[in-house]
Automatic annotation (TrEMBL):
<dbReference type="Pfam" id="PF13279">
    <property type="entry name" value="4HBT_2"/>
</dbReference>
<dbReference type="InterPro" id="IPR050563">
    <property type="entry name" value="4-hydroxybenzoyl-CoA_TE"/>
</dbReference>
<protein>
    <submittedName>
        <fullName>Acyl-CoA thioesterase</fullName>
    </submittedName>
</protein>
<dbReference type="GO" id="GO:0047617">
    <property type="term" value="F:fatty acyl-CoA hydrolase activity"/>
</dbReference>
<dbReference type="InterPro" id="IPR029069">
    <property type="entry name" value="HotDog_dom_sf"/>
</dbReference>
Amino acid sequence: MRWADMDMLGHVNNVTYVDYLQEARIDMLATHAPVQGGEELAEGTVVVRHEVHYVSPLVFRQEPVTIECWVTEIRAASFTMAYEIVDVVDGERVVHLRATTIISPFVFAEERPRRLSASEKEALSGWLEPGFESAGPVPAVPAPGARHVFPLFVRWSDVDAYGHVNNVTYFEYFQESRIAYLWGLPRPEDGDWTPWVVAQTDVEYRRPILFRREPYAVHSWVHAVGGRSAVLVSEIRDDDHVLARARVVMVAFDRETQRSAAMNPAQHGRLEAEVSG
């Protein structure tokens, strides 16, 4: 864990968790396969979908945190992994995060997915255990358009060894567009908005994002509002093509109690107006 992993609330930032998961996944596939045959899956794959549920905050300390990961489903051309980031405190197991990732083997030279080989399936089966219930498909941003459009410039450092924007970086793109959207809304007259923490993020990867000078566009919309939470859906688009889609559940948060809180009434009303406006 690095000091730079922390956000303004003193917690590990929601994007950084996904980086942790990627490192754990590559380590598992590259060095801990129960049988030979799965080594290529450490690198020759693309992420199709992430579902990330943030259970409890993780704060900076020098001791390592444990990431448990395993395989929950093996299909013809994809497999699903599950993760938990955990601690043991006073003999009790504390879960900070639960997540699942759908992964497809990929032929990068030809820019196409491929089927799993028999040896790869055998290697993956050594980790096979039950997983978590899926959150379901991410809803589309409704036509004729979003409440907010964010110009997305890809940085050279966002691109991985295969020439695609890395799957973790999409979470950062959605975070930047979300912050720009919410900060741009009118503020209540009786004070600042109640702070947010992210409780759940689901990302569907539909097409690769490539480096270019021209910006892509992130379209965002408030999908639903509750007393203490709101759901934001976003799409990264290239003209009419949807490259990725995300659903983020945000929960209002009390800095002092470190627990969920009711939203400022004006804040709640403003977000409801975004849903119905």
